[in-house]
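Quick look at the format.
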Amino acid sequence: MYPKASPPGKLMERTFPLALAALAGAALVAALVHAVLVAAHVSEPAATTIYGLTARRIWATTVVALALIGVVIGGMALARPASRFGKGRLGAIVALLAGLIAVVNGWLVLAIANGGPGSGNGVVGGAVALVLGLIALALGGLALGRPRRSKEDAGMSDPRLA
């Protein structure tokens, strides 16, 4: 009735590679965000730092949240194509739309910014939204382009199971 407990060594065998992969992914995203800031010519910190929320920081933070939702949904649609998102297509389309909105808004934040990090323009959030939006677009495109499995391939050769 209850699942068997895995041996203590098995948990460590899975946890360490996952933690290492998460750390490598975070480092890659940070490097890409820095590259976007350099390419947009807003990588120099502001002379005077503005603390607190500004309208552009709220805009950038909202777009980052949308991009992160797109990445999560795109990953779920790619990993589990027959789950809660209508056999993966709806999840892939949602990830594509969220990624596209995040890329456009992240680019707009960077395009209208007149200062670097700390200027209150939300440039770091815009760069993060741009990078995560591109990742969401890639995951959604991969999930949408995946070939569908027929019922016979899924082990449902009996028509009564359909």
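Next, a different chain entirely:
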Amino acid sequence: MRPNIVFIVADDLGYADLSCCGRRDFSTPNIDRIAERGLRFTQAYANSAVCSATRLALITGRYQYRLPLGLEEPLAGKTDVGLPPAHPTLPSLLRGIGYGTTLVGKWHLGLPPSFGPRQSGYDRFWGIQFSAARSTTTRTSTRAANPICGTATRQPAPPAT
């Protein structure tokens, strides 16, 4: 049986912000339960001080400055910069061997329609496409205009290369 993989990336979360890591005045029981039952990596290095570059490095496994997106921050409405859909990513590789992949939260690696989680290997996405600084919870009449969107249709895995 293959293991489930839950990878949590949180902007502005410090190591001691979780009760499983020593926080005494705030409780995070659900994350504590995941940490208790799974594998914990307690030493890590964030390769960038900004979210897009860090996310890019994590999703591609590459030094962020090897792609144009890693040099851009903030993205602030730049529609021509993003994670190229053809570039291999951790979710696309996992999907290629039969895993289901889901992103919940912030994408912030390029704006639709050219870029997005569905184009980069995720079967499902629920979250915001861009920076939290730009997000709102205002509902609009059209899904395209709404910063919060969800998709639940599984796309077939791309052919192996």
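The chain has two domains: 1-44, 47-151.

See the schema section for token definitions.
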